[in-house]
């Protein structure tokens, strides 16, 4: 297969500082072994085929630092300059970007200028890989798309939807950490192949038959999470690798079936000619408007109210009994929850884990946070991100969001 000519622009300060707040051990591994994860990225999480790296640039503030994650080291600060030789040895061109103001260095503007200059090169770069969670990069992605270039974002945290939606592929922090550790990447992205492939069509027909049978035989509304869990076990992991047959999600795949009289809420599907809405059956009601308004802009997982506390308890149990590793934590918690009959995806658990870390209660903390601390930190992060995204919420709506997420009211 012909290799894709690719250019990688890495905002080291942005990526490393975000990763170290989630998993310090793997963040340091990312900075000390760039050659290893770069080699894996050559053939993993691709858009059109394996990459041939023509440009490798790492933008770093030579005086930048984060608080040292290891108290036993006796050092208060971990300086970015320590990692400079590792990137040089891995073939990166390291661009020094000293701080221009108290909070801002020149990395983002340098990356933009260099990427736009590359468009005018005599060599045509097929794919631009932008490793940064800074939504200031959005105009750059618009410019690259206008020039018909493929774009991949490596986001170390939960980036803004306006930023990630423009790219052809998003590599999440979970996937990045799996790359760093050399683990199989469990991607939820839609593969490059289209939905017209024979093997996808055959699976889709099986999916249609199973759903139609379940829907026709159901005595009442079907819980979407439980239905998705059952279908995964019957159809295999192909539904995830194809991102539900190229439709981008389970509910969209269900909607494509055009089931007669089908009605959907946030968490249920039912036959409107035979069933009452889920609220009348005693099931949990739909998410309040304040939660719905946060779902798309923040990427908030659409879990029912009753599913949030089990996630917090599972993560608290992991943190209390294991040396923390983010990829292991999400896998372990997912499997524990499945044993308890709670179907939650790894991506949803990873979202909670990241939010907890950025909310001030990282799972690697000693002593480990309990379930209530995890819930509080996660809700704090969700509301802080909503404020940063200019989503106006009243005090009553904030309390409503905390209640839905299973977090205690700080004013109580």
Secondary-structure blueprint:
Blueprint: E1 4-11, H1 12-22, H2 24-32, H3 34-43, E2 51-60, E3 65-67, E4 77-79, H4 84-89, E5 93-96, H5 107-119, E6 127-131, H6 138-146, E7 150-154, H7 161-164, E8 169-171, H8 173-181, H9 198-217, E9 222-223, H10 224-235, H11 238-241, H12 250-256, E10 262-264, E11 268-271, H13 289-298, H14 308-321, H15 326-339, H16 346-358, H17 371-388, H18 395-404
Parallel strand pairs: 1-2, 1-6, 2-5, 6-7, 7-8
Antiparallel strand pairs: 3-4, 9-11, 10-11
Helix pairs in contact: 1-2, 3-8, 14-15, 14-17, 15-16, 16-17
Protein name: NYN domain-containing protein
Domain NYN: 5-172
InterPro entries: NYN
The gist of it:
Residues 5-172 form the NYN domain. InterPro entries: NYN. The chain is an alpha/beta fold.
Spatial strand sequence of the major β-sheet: 5-2-1-6-7-8
Q: Ranges with pLDDT <50 over ≥5 residues?
A: 188-202, 280-284
The general outline is globular
Helix content: 40-55%
Structural class: alpha/beta
Mean pLDDT level: 86
Assembly state of the chains shown? single chain
- Roughly how many Å is the radius of gyration? 22 Å
Give the total of beta strands.
Answer: 11
Count of helical segments?
18
Could you tell me how far the N terminus lies from the C terminus, measured between alpha carbons in angstroms? Answer: 61 Å
| DSSP strand content | 5-15%
The major beta sheet can be summarized as: 6 strands, parallel
Order of helices and strands: EHHHEEEHEHEHEHEHHEHHHEEHHHHHH
Organism: Actinoplanes sichuanensis
InterPro entries: NYN
Domain NYN: 5-172
Protein name: NYN domain-containing protein
């Amino acid at each position: 297969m012909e290799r894709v000519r690719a250019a990688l622009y890495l905002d080291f300060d942005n990526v490393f500082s975000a990763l170290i707040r989630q998993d310090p051990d793997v963040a340091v591994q990312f900075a000390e072994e760039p050659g290893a994860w770069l080699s894996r990225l050559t053939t993993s999480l691709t858009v059109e085929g394996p990459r041939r790296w023509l440009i490798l640039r790492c933008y770093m503030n030579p005086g930048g630092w984060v608080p040292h994650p290891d108290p036993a080291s006796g050092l208060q600060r971990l300086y970015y300059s320590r990692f400079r030789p590792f990137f040089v040895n891995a073939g990166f061109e390291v661009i020094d970007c000293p701080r221009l103001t108290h909070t801002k260095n020149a990395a983002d503007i340098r990356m933009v200028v260099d990427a736009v200059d590359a468009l005018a090169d005599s060599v045509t770069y097929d794919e631009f890989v932008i490793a940064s969670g800074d939504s200031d990069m959005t105009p750059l992605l618009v410019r690259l798309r206008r020039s018909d270039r493929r774009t991949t974002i490596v986001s170390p945290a939960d980036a803004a939807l306006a930023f990630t939606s423009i790219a052809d592929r998003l590599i999440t922090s979970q996937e990045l950490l799996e790359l760093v550790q050399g683990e199989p990447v469990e991607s939820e992205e839609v593969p490059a192949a289209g939905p017209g492939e024979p093997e996808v069509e055959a699976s889709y027909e099986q999916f249609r038959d199973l759903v139609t049978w379940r829907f026709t035989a159901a005595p009442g509304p079907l819980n979407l999470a439980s239905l998705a869990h059952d279908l995964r076990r019957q159809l295999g992991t192909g539904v995830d690798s194809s991102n539900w047959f190229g439709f981008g999600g389970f509910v969209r795949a269900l909607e494509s079936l055009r089931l007669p009289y089908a009605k959907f809420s946030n968490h249920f599907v039912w036959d409107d000619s035979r069933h009452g809405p889920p609220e009348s059956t005693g099931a949990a009601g739909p998410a309040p408007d304040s939660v719905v308004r946060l779902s798309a802009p923040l990427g908030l997982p659409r879990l029912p109210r009753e599913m949030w506390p089990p996630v917090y308890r599972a993560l608290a149990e992991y943190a209390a009994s294991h040396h923390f590793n983010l990829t292991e934590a999400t896998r372990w918690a997912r499997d524990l929850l499945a044993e308890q009959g709670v179907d939650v995806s790894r991506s949803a658990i990873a979202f909670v884990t990241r939010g907890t870390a950025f909310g001030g209660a990282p799972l690697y903390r000693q002593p480990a946070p309990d379930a209530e601390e995890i819930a509080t930190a996660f809700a704090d992060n969700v509301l802080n991100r909503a404020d940063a995204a200019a989503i106006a919420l009243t005090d009553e709506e904030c309390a409503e969001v905390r209640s839905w997420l299973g977090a205690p009211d700080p004013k109580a």
